[in-house]
Each structure stands twice: as structure tokens, then as C-alpha cells.
Amino acid sequence: MRTLPLAGHEPFGLDIKESAFTHRVGSIVDRGLVRVCLRGMDAIIHTATLHKPHVATHARQNFIDTNITGTLNLLEEARDARIGTFLFTSTTSVFGRALTPSRGEPAAWITEDIVPRPKNIYGITKLAAENLCELFHRNYGLSCLILRTARFFPEPDDRRETRETYTDANAKVNEFLYRRADIEDVATAHLLAVRKAASIGFGRYIVSATTPFCEADGAELHKNAPTVVARYVPDYPEVYAALGWSMFPAIERVYDNTRARTELGWQPRHDFGGLIDRLRSGGDHRSALALAVGSKRYHDVVFQDGPYPV
Known about the structure:
Shape: globular
Number of helices: 12
CATH superfamily: NAD(P)-binding Rossmann-like Domain
Number of domains: 1
Structural class: alpha/beta
Strand content: 5-15%
CATH class: Alpha Beta
Distance between the termini: 30 Å
Radius of gyration: 20 Å
Strand order of the largest sheet: 3-4-6-7
Largest sheet: 4 strands, parallel
Number of strands: 8
CATH topology: Rossmann fold
């Protein structure tokens, strides 16, 4: 919503909360409201969702209502209104159990060809919504692109062990090696997808920072990640030592964004090597957009143990 006008678009924001970027307060579960909001629109960027942080606080039916029925409402109203472009913001969480290799196996190399194995209601409903998008492309010719985004939220890690072992910035910079993206790059991927949807028709894309690794590094990454990282980014140990930071001892999966870079023409600006350069000169690892957006919070209450219950 912050970047669309700068790219020449006129966005209309539907959200359950008031904000400077919300034109209409309401839910995508309300099909009548969706119909009204889509009048005169050319494209839909569907980012509304119940997320992993809501798994412990919301019923499974809530996930089905928002993530599946809400998506169906948007798709059917898009078809009826003859809207040509539909972007669905999905998640790498759909891969689920495919992300965790067995003991002794190399780190999982994750591309769009990996078969998803969701492990909670969040992943199940996001994958179902993806399949609805594919159905509407196949049956009605709606141009649908699915962006499976990696982590880009600013909240602290949900795992207590991670929060106690690493500072928040340390953990997040580590993740840029394999499972995180800056929100600026995520927004750019969506802008490109709007432009490319009609010519592509349908596609699924992993949106994550460009990793320095290759698939052949998998076995060593799962055993001794710091050694592999130092091979690709030799300056990182010195910068980390100055900050009192440390690298994760092992990395169990790596997201490969090659398809998004190739087919969307996406060129993410923020990767681990670039962050090391910024940190060396005293800069912030977050982009200006990430700092401006900040945290919107998943819940209206503050939980005693962690950013949200697990």
C-alpha cells in the first residue's frame, strides 16, 4: 500500500483494522462487501490471512473462513467483475514437513517443485487457497500468480531457545542466508508480479533473499554451517565478533528463489553479504521500508512468554 502509488497504481485497501492505508474496514469473509470493493478494479493483491501466530488463539474454522472461504469470495467476485489479475500472497510454510531433513541427511533444498506437506491448519488452508487460484486460472482464464513468501515479519522468534541464544537482529540476519526476506524486496516482487501476471498466466514463486549457497553445500550446512558461510562471505566472522554475534551451528533448509528472479525479473536488494557490508559501516540491517512499516502485531494482547503462544 505504501509502494503501489509510487509505481503509478491507485490502490484501494480493505482491512479489518483502520489505518492510513485502509479505505474500507471489513473482512473478505463478507462476500457482499468484497463485491462492492472490487468495483472498477483491475487487479487484486490478496494478502489477507490468519497466520501461524494465530494457530494457538483461533479455531480451525476461523482459518477455513478467512483463508479458504475468503479467498474463494475474492476469486469468484474477480471472475464476475472480469478482473484480469489476481496475486495471492502465500507462504513457504506450505512446505511444512518437507523443510526438515532426517538426521544425517543434507539440508533440504527447497524449490517450487518440492511437494508441500503442511503441518498445521495455517499451512493446510494456504495450500488449499493456492489450489483454488489454480482452479480459477484453469477454468476461467484468470491470471493468478502465487508468491510463497519467506519470513519478513519484525516480531521476535517464536522459539524461546532462539530468543535466549541470539539477539533478535543476530537471528534475523542469520536467516537471510536461507529463509528470510526484507519487506522492501517482498513488496517489489508483488509489484513485478502485477506487471507480469497477464503474460505468465499462472505460477508459484518462492520469495526469499538470494542465498549464497548451492545445493551441493547441503550436507555440510546441516553439520557445520559457520564454515560454509565463511567460504562465501569471508568477512562475516570479523563483523559478527565485533557485534558479539554468532552463526547458527546448522542450517536445515535453503529456499531457492531462482524461478522468481528468472520469470518475474525480480532482483532482491537485500541479502546476507549486503547486510554484512551495512553492519560493518554501522548501518541497520533493515531497509527504510521495514523501519517505516514496523510491527503491526498479530494480537491485541501481549503474551507473557514470547511474541505469541505456540
